[in-house]
Design goal:
about 35% helix; Nucleotidyltransferase, domain 5; 23 strands; seven-stranded mixed beta sheet; single chain; six-stranded mixed beta sheet; about 500 residues; alpha+beta
């Protein structure tokens, strides 16, 4: 038996076919366009996500062949992105507002000034920031004609997982899981339900939201007329970072991981304890078991890391492919004093400044693309250090080792600098696509492919361990200075 996992990310969709030994036996990928209508606005066309899902799944299934029959489907997704779709036709009346979108900064400021943030934090474990889904829905309610369909009950709302669930099941299921719901600013994480109080505050009709279910168990079945002729149970759902935590076998309190994707997301399992952060971190649902048991996590969300490397490639044309940064970084002994603060969509944890903007400091006539590449990789490691240091203090849990995954974790230079900066070992697994692997694990648990998480923990395999060496504290001090100078830049008149 095997599991089909759909990982609907920010820039593309990956599909994996994972067998009972947790080996990837089929893989497919399809990217989709990014839309930037105005500075700070980021949008996706939902139909593009759906077509990329079909293409990626087709390729993964073709690659797997007859290796193992597929038993079930799991979904993991970019979180916080707000999607609207017609309940009858499943077509979207407008583009989705992506988690990176910053257009709701004024709404957040308005709510903060009105004194709502403490109550929002109490109920959700989050903060009022454009990152989250709720204020995106408020913006749509105040500015977009499509919201009339939401009020009339004709248009559904949800995150990307709920949209894909609707498309996979031919519109029969409108559901999400607790991990995704906990990222919306609309979900009471202690009550385990949508909050009528928050829905009223953010102008969201509670009936338009999907039902919230455990992270594994049967959600519904795929519609063969719309999904590659297949009728399969959908049995696992989680937000991408929670799925990565699960895929990394971080099942005990204190287990932690960092995913280097478009952004970097550091999570630490806090078990049944709901840890409140006083230092800019997020309290979130990691996953919910079918018996209702909730595992929580403390999270630091860094908005731009891998996207900074992508910007070097696509925006500046300094590299041809992301892997080239490792060779360039190793070709120079240091950055030559260059500091890059990749606040291209503001700053996330633990700084939380939507008005910050990217900045490069220390340029001279001797600066080369190698210095910029090295500064970019160091910036990723510095941002993660910022989060981990706050995280361990907040949670009161030691982090003896950091497991890493995601595309940029293949970069050995980055992993070594990360170990040096944290002064703890960094472990890289054989399977770097742990987000998709986590979705497969959850779905497999829901369908009986695996018995329990203990069984899954035995499948985790180490590829390389990076031991900490000498830490460059001078470079980190320069980073802190550059960080402060980047803050509030967009607010300068």
């Amino acid at each position: 038996m095997s599991v089909l996992a759909i990982d609907a990310g920010t820039t593309g969709v990956t599909a994996l076919v994972v067998d009972e030994a947790a080996r990837v036996v089929g893989r497919g990928y399809q990217d989709f366009p990014q839309h930037f209508p105005q500075p700070g606005w980021v949008e996706h066309e939902p139909e593009d996500i759906w077509q990329a899902t079909l293409a990626a799944c087709r390729a993964a299934l073709d690659g797997a062949g007859d290796a193992a029959p597929v038993r079930c489907v799991g979904i993991t997704n970019q979180r916080e992105t707000a999607v609207l779709w017609d309940r009858r036709t499943l077509r979207s009346p407008r583009r989705a507002l992506v988690w990176q979108d910053r257009r709701t900064a004024a709404i957040c400021e308005r709510l903060i000034e009105a004194g709502h943030e403490p109550r929002v934090a109490e109920l959700t474990g989050l903060r009022l920031d454009p990152y989250f889904t709720g204020t995106k829905l408020t913006w749509l309610a105040e500015h977009d004609p499509a919201w009339a369909g939401v009020r009339a009950g004709e248009v559904a709302i949800g995150t990307v997982d709920a949209y894909l669930m609707a498309r996979l099941t031919g519109g029969q299921v409108h559901a999400t899981d607790a991990s995704n719901a906990s990222r919306t600013l609309l979900y009471d994480i202690t009550a385990g339900a949508w909050s009528e109080e928050l829905c009223a505050l953010l102008q969201v009709p509670i009936d338009a939201l999907p039902s919230v279910r455990p992270s594994w168990g049967e959600f519904g079945h795929t519609d063969p007329d719309t999904f590659l002729g297949l009728r399969l149970p959908v049995t696992g759902v989680a937000g991408d970072q929670q799925a990565a935590l699960f895929g990394q076998a971080c099942y005990s309190p204190g287990d932690s991981k960092c995913t280097y994707g478009t952004g970097s997301f550091i999570l630490i399992n806090t078990g049944a304890e709901l840890v409140r952060s006083s230092a800019g971190l997020l309290t979130t649902v990691a996953w919910q078991a079918p018996d209702g048991t909730v595992t929580y996590a403390l999270e630091g969300a860094v908005f731009v890391t891998g996207a900074a490397v992508q910007w070097l490639r696509d925006g500046l044309g300094l590299i041809e492919h992301a892997a080239q940064t490792e060779e360039l970084a190793n070709s120079v002994p240091d950055t030559g004093g260059v500091v890059f603060v990749p606040a291209l969509t503001g700053l996330g944890a633990p700084h939380w400044d939507p008005e910050a903007r990217g900045a490069v400091f220390g340029l001279t006539r001797g600066t080369t693309r190698a210095h910029l590449a090295r500064a970019t990789l160091e910036a990723i490691a510095f941002q993660v250090r910022d989060v981990v240091e706050v995280m361990t203090a907040d949670a009161g849990l030691a982090v003896p080792v950091l497991t890493v995954d995601g595309g940029a974790s293949a970069n050995g230079f980055l992993c070594q600098v990360q170990a040096d900066q944290l002064q703890i070992p960094v472990e890289r697994p054989e399977v770097l696509e742990t987000t998709g692997l986590g979705a497969a694990f959850l779905a497999g648990l829901g369908a009986g492919v695996w018995k329990d998480p203990t069984t899954l923990a035995d499948t985790w395999r180490l590829e390389r361990r990076f031991e900490p060496g000498t830490r460059d504290d001078a470079a980190y001090r320069r980073w802190q200075v550059g960080l402060q100078r980047s803050r509030g830049w967009a607010a300068i008149g």
